[in-house]
């Protein structure tokens, strides 16, 4: 797919970009007087004293300083983000699955407008589960989203943590303070804590303009590339393939009125400005939004026998305080060859010390039937809750002739895996399209025949 914008590349690089020649200071961060009367502003993503290898910050040179805005106003969830409201959360070890969201009314809350109302990214964001508290900088949330209109004259930032945005259908263009970032289905984007952005929906046809997908929010630290260990220097997600925006200013909206929405301690606030927040003429640093084409992931796999652990397919990780244990991993199951001998090739039956949130992004997932787990569906298997292939998939894989098999390019699944237990929201159980027959897919497995002694 050809991208419409130009980018700079390299995961975690220190970038420098300007859309007006001479706007970027040379040799210093905050001159006494910036070129063209611009204002120097630093955005810190880590503490000043964080080790240099982990320190993240960006200097921006903008038309108006960010401090120039009206007072924050607390806004009810029903008014702006009904899917984030706390109707209540419950603890359950039950295996859960949701069918794809669409433009029908069932997944809208009773407090939201009727089914004809346009739904932008923020209004269409529904929290499925959460662990921890953002005010403690500890934990995460998982969401699904569906939207059919762009955020015009509005922007959003999340003070609670980083957002990993994964479109499953349709395309988003994220207009961020640091530039434009397009995110079609099959790509993933990360917007770090505090960076303001507007999600714009790209029309799929003359009559259809929708996007749906999933979001992972982490309250602590930032996403990074996983260590490769004995895999070596190459393979998996290559740093050179991560793209970052170039400085971009929409001159037509510089003097227009905007509403800025903020999520702070899991509450929604709003302030107004008489100018655009997308007015950064130049910036330099390493704290910035980025995107990645999942088709560029180079998978490694078993080439003789046995099914390898899914950690070999990790694209991004957010570490916890315990070495080797992630707060959250973003994992994909991409097109690849399966060549294992005398092996049950799909994912095995499993009870895990981690929580697994699975998403089918395209095609048929090899451990579930296409009818039960179509593209856009998702499932949640909590810590120590047994899961694995359904009866139909097991029967097929246990008897098929084991020739080298190519999982086609039309297939793609993904997983958010976390070491935390999630509380499930009532919104997810009552308003999203929950599959109430899910656990029946594991019924009627025939018992093994044990020879008599």
Automatic annotation (TrEMBL):
Coiled coil: none annotated. Keywords: Dioxygenase, Iron, Metal-binding, Oxidoreductase, Phenylalanine catabolism, Tyrosine catabolism. The active site is at residue 307. Pathway: Amino-acid degradation; L-phenylalanine degradation; acetoacetate and fumarate from L-phenylalanine: step 4/6. Residues 7-294 form the Homogentisate 1,2-dioxygenase N-terminal domain. It is an enzyme of class 1 (oxidoreductase). Residues 296-445 form the Homogentisate 1,2-dioxygenase C-terminal domain. It holds the Pfam family HgmA_C. Homogentisate binds at residues 365, 387. InterPro entries: HgmA_C (IPR046451), HgmA_N (IPR046452), Homogentis_dOase (IPR005708), RmlC-like_jellyroll (IPR014710), RmlC_Cupin_sf (IPR011051). It comes from the Eukaryota. Fe cation binds at residues 350, 356, 387. Its cofactor is Fe cation. Its EC number is 1.13.11.5. GO terms for biological process: L-phenylalanine catabolic process; L-tyrosine catabolic process. GO terms for cellular component: cytoplasm. PANTHER family: HOMOGENTISATE 1,2-DIOXYGENASE. This is homogentisate 1,2-dioxygenase. It comes from Cyanidioschyzon merolae (strain NIES-3377 / 10D). The lineage of its organism: Eukaryota, Rhodophyta, Bangiophyceae, Cyanidiales, Cyanidiaceae.
């Amino acid at each position: 797919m050809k991208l419409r914008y130009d980018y700079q590349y390299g995961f975690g690089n220190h970038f420098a970009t300007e859309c007006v020649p001479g706007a970027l200071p040379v040799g210093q961060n905050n001159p006494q007087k910036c070129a063209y009367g611009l204002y120097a502003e630093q955005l810190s993503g880590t503490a000043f004293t964080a080790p240099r290898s982990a320190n993240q910050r960006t200097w921006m040179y903008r038309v108006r300083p960010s401090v120039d805005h009206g007072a924050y106003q607390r806004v009810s969830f029903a008014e702006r983000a009904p899917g984030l409201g706390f109707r209540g959360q419950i603890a359950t070890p039950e295996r859960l699955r949701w069918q794809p969201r669409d433009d029908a009314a069932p997944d809208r809350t009773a407090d939201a407008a009727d089914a004809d109302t346009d739904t932008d990214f923020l209004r269409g964001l529904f929290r499925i589960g959460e662990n921890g508290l953002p005010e403690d900088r500890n934990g995460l949330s998982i969401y699904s989203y569906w939207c059919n209109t762009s955020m015009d004259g509005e922007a959003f930032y999340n003070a609670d943590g980083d957002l990993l945005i994964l479109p499953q259908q349709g395309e988003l263009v994220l207009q961020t303070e640091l530039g434009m970032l397009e995110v079609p289905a099959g790509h993933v984007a990360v917007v770090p804590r505090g960076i303001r952005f507007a999600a714009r929906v790209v029309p799929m046809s003359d009559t259809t303009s929708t996007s749906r997908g999933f979001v992972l929010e982490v309250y602590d630290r930032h996403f990074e590339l996983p260590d490769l260990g004995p895999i070596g220097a190459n393979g998996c997600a290559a740093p050179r393939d991560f793209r970052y925006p170039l400085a971009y200013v929409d001159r037509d909206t510089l003097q227009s009125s905007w509403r800025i929405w903020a999520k702070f301690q899991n509450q929604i606030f709003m302030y107004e400005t008489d100018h655009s927040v997308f007015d950064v003429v130049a910036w330099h640093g390493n704290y910035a939004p980025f995107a990645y084409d999942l088709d560029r992931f180079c998978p490694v796999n078993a080439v003789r026998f046995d099914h390898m652990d899914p950690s070999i397919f990790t694209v991004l990780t957010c570490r916890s305080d315990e070495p080797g244990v992630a707060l959250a991993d973003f994992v994909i199951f991409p097109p690849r060859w399966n060549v294992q001998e005398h092996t049950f090739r799909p994912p095995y039956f499993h009870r895990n010390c981690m929580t697994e949130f699975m998403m089918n992004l395209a095609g048929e997932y090899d451990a579930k039937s296409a009818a039960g787990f179509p593209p856009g569906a998702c499932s949640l298997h909590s810590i120590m809750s047994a899961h694995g292939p359904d009866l139909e998939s097991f029967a097929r894989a246990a008897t098929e002739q084991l020739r080298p098999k190519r999982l086609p390019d039309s297939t793609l699944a993904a997983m958010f895996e976390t070491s935390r237990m999630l509380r499930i929201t009532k919104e997810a159980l009552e308003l999203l399209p929950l599959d109430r027959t899910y656990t029946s897919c594991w019924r009627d497995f025939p018992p093994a025949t044990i020879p008599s002694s």
